[in-house]
Every structure is written in C-alpha cells, then in structure tokens.
C-alpha cells in the first residue's frame, strides 16, 4: 500500500500564502530570440512598414486621426425664387408657380399644368382610367359603389362618355372629372432663367463655430451676382436651368414630367486652419428614380374655389414641376490630445502584429520550428506532491528544464 500523504498543517498554509504573496510582485519579461533568417526579416520589416504607412498616411493625414470631430451641423435654410413666365393663356409670377410659398428647404416650381375648369358638384361619367368604369348597360354599374381610386359614388346608370362612342358608369362627384375636360398648359418656356436664392447658415456647437454662405457686403452685391464656384462662391443665387444642367438632366423633358433635384451643400471644415478655409461645396443630382417609369416624375393637385351664380365651383389644377430639396451636411474637426494619444497607442500596439506573424511562420512552416519552440517557451517540470505546498507560487525561472538550456539549438535556427 502507498504511504499515507501528510496532511497540510497551519504552518504550511501560512508559508504557502507568503510564497504566493511574494510571487504576486514578481515581474516577468518575455524572452527575446534573434533569428538570423533574411526572408523572415524581410517579411517582418515589410509588415511593420505597411502598418506605419497605414497609420501615418491614412489615419493621421487622410482621416485626421489627431482631431476631435463633429458631424451633422445645426443648419437653417431660407429660399427665395424670382422670375416670371407665361403659358398659352396668361402670365405667371412667383406667387402662382412656387409651392409652398414660405421659402423653406423643400419647394416646387410648377412647369406644366392640366386645368379642369368650372367643376361643380353633380353627376357625370366616370373616368375611363378607373378600374371597371366602362359599361354596356345599367346592370354593369352598382349603385352606391365607391372606388377609392375613382372620382365619386356610382349612381347605377351607364351613360355616354365625354367623347367617342364609349360608355362609363355615372358618378356623383365634382364634374366634369379631370380626364374628361382637362386642358394642358406649359409654363416652362422661361423657367430656366428663374433665379433661386439659397441662404444657409450652419453651426457646430462642440467647437462654437458658425458660418453662412453669403458674403458680408453692403454694396448691393447680391442684386447683381449669380453663383460661380471660383469668382462668386458666396453668392448663392442659382439659375434653375443651371441646377438642372449640373444634375445632368434635360430641362424640357424634366419640365414636362416633373422631377426632384437635390441641392447638396457640404461644409467640411478643418478648424485647425483659418475660418476662411471653411467654405461650402455645392453639388446637384436628381433624387427620384427616372429610370423606373412607375415612380419617376413629380406632380400634385390643388384647387381654387369660387362662386358662380350662388353655387360653389372650383378649378382643379394638376401641376407638374421641379421639386428642389436643399440638403445640408458636413463635418468639422479640431486638434485634440485624447484622439491623438489613442491613435498613437493603437499604432504602436499594431506594430506588434509583425512579431506575431513571424512567430506563427516560425512555429508552423520553418524547418527548425521545434528548436525555435523549445527556445521560445519554457516548460515547467512537475514537482513531487509532498513538496507542492510552498513551491506552487515559486518563480517559473527556478523550474526550467536544464535540458532546454543547450546553446546549440539557437545556432541551428
């Protein structure tokens, strides 16, 4: 039978505790091994160089990693349109062709209208564009039926259409319906010369920085200038034709079908430089999907009401136009010690990736990988159980395998 193991005494426990407490304050440093291998050295220095280039060029120069940044400035936009145009029957001014008239960041300029005059409440044939509106007899029309895409409630009668030999179900609605009596008028003849003032102010609260896109002059500068990217950057007065052209669109086509144009103002400001270097950059592009017929174009309806012989009548207008969306975005940055320290620490830490990669190559692919493994890692020798007490917390260096101290192994790498 095996000899009984001695039970640990209180003195042994105290010695164990003191040994562990002493070992807690030991400092251990990794072993450094110099491997004379040209190919491995090239890989190591190449990885270090790539990491340095990434942090110096991309992080610090391109991304300005030494700066604290703020995105999405507080912004206000005020717009004003000027110009007159004419259609086949009248002259149109700003009060009639700009909707809404408040001068916000989103507004529409009407370029074509379909007018249905003298609509009154009564009964009339339904539009042929409405589903199941055509009929051959009264039996095809159900009284009281309401189509949400139609113009009114069906009376149950089948009546002749406005023109041609077709018949549709009669409805109780504003009559005549739009498709039966509308007249088209084009307002876009002089619309390319309309001028649009876009007044924009931005504020970055983190840096207490504010700026506007209009030059501070008192000589009537805005009354005689139009926007030019080089000579008149701070004259935000754009011709409608210029905006459409910069968005890559044909004005006549866009005026007939309608569309949405975005005016994008970008404020990217490096506040380590002079405030004069913080300038707006304008770009223009079409926002609605013109290549998808089902969702391209832009139109809306509104009506003007009046009295005729004591009865209420209205003129229904279906308006096609160019909607302008003014979109403001940007980013400001300024030197800050905290992101600089963080990025420097990340760069210095990342350089260690080269050592990790070369160690992996040595341990996996090199012919002498086992010798390198013995030299890099110290292996602990199991101690007898009876002496395990105080020596459990002993330093690793006192328990190295003497067989691993052979200096010839390193010379073979």
From TrEMBL:
Which InterPro entries does the protein's record reference?
A: P2X2_purnocptor, P2X_extracellular_dom_sf, P2X_purnocptor, P2X_receptor, P2X_RECEPTOR_CS
Q: Does the keyword Magnesium apply?
A: no
For biological process, the GO terms are:
behavioral response to pain; calcium ion transmembrane transport; detection of hypoxic conditions in blood by carotid body chemoreceptor signaling; neuromuscular junction development; neuromuscular synaptic transmission; peristalsis; response to ATP; response to carbohydrate
Catalyzed reactions per annotation: K(+)(in) = K(+)(out); Ca(2+)(in) = Ca(2+)(out); Na(+)(in) = Na(+)(out)
Cite the NCBIfam families for this sequence. P2X
Q: Which PANTHER family match?
A: P2X PURINOCEPTOR, P2X PURINOCEPTOR 2
The protein depicted here goes by the name P2X purinoceptor
Question: Which species is this record about?
Answer: Equus caballus (Horse)
Organism phylogeny: Eukaryota, Metazoa, Chordata, Craniata, Vertebrata
Q: Which gene encodes it?
A: P2RX2
């Amino acid at each position: 039978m095996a000899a009984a193991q001695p039970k640990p005494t209180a003195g042994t426990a105290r010695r164990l505790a003191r040994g562990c407490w002493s070992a807690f304050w030991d400092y251990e440093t990794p072993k450094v091994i110099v491997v004379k291998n040209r190919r491995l050295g090239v890989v190591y220095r190449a990885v270090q160089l790539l990491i340095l280039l990434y942090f110096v060029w991309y992080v610090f120069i391109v991304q300005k990693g030494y700066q604290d940044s703020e995105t999405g400035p507080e912004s206000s936009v005020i717009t004003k349109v000027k110009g007159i145009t004419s259609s086949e029957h009248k002259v149109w001014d700003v009060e009639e062709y700009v909707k809404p008239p408040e001068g916000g960041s989103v507004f529409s300029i009407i370029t074509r209208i379909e007018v249905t005059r003298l609509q009154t409440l009564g009964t009339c044939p339904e539009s042929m564009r409405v589903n199941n509106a055509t009929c051959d007899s009264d039996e095809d029309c159900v009284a009281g039926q309401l189509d949400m895409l139609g113009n009114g409630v069906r009376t149950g009668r089948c009546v002749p259409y406005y023109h041609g030999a077709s018949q549709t179900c009669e409805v109780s609605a504003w009559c005549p319906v739009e498709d039966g009596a509308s007249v088209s008028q084009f307002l876009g003849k002089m619309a390319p010369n309309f001028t649009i003032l876009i007044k924009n102010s931005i504020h970055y609260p983190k840096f207490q920085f504010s700026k506007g896109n209009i030059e501070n002059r008192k000589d009537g500068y805005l009354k005689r200038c139009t926007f030019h990217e080089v000579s008149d950057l701070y004259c935000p007065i754009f011709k409608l034709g210029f905006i459409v052209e910069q968005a890559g669109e044909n004005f006549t086509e866009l005026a007939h079908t309608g569309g949405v144009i975005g005016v994008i103002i970008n404020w990217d400001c490096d506040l380590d430089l002079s405030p004069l270097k913080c300038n707006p950059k304008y770009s223009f592009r079409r926002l609605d999907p013109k290549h998808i017929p089902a969702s391209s174009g832009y139109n809306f309806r509104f009506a003007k009401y009046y009295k005729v012989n004591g009865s209420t009548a209205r003129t229904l207008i279906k308006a096609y136009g160019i909607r302008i969306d003014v979109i403001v975005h940007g980013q400001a940055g300024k030197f800050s010690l905290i992101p600089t320290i963080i990025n420097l620490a990340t760069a210095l830490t990342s350089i260690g990736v080269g050592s990790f990669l070369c160690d992996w190559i040595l341990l996996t692919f090199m012919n002498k990988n086992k010798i390198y493994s013995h030299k890099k890692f110290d292996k602990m020798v199991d101690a007898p159980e009876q002496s395990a007490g105080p020596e459990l917390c002993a330093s690793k260096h006192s328990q190295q395998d003497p067989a691993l101290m052979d200096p010839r192994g390193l010379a073979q790498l």
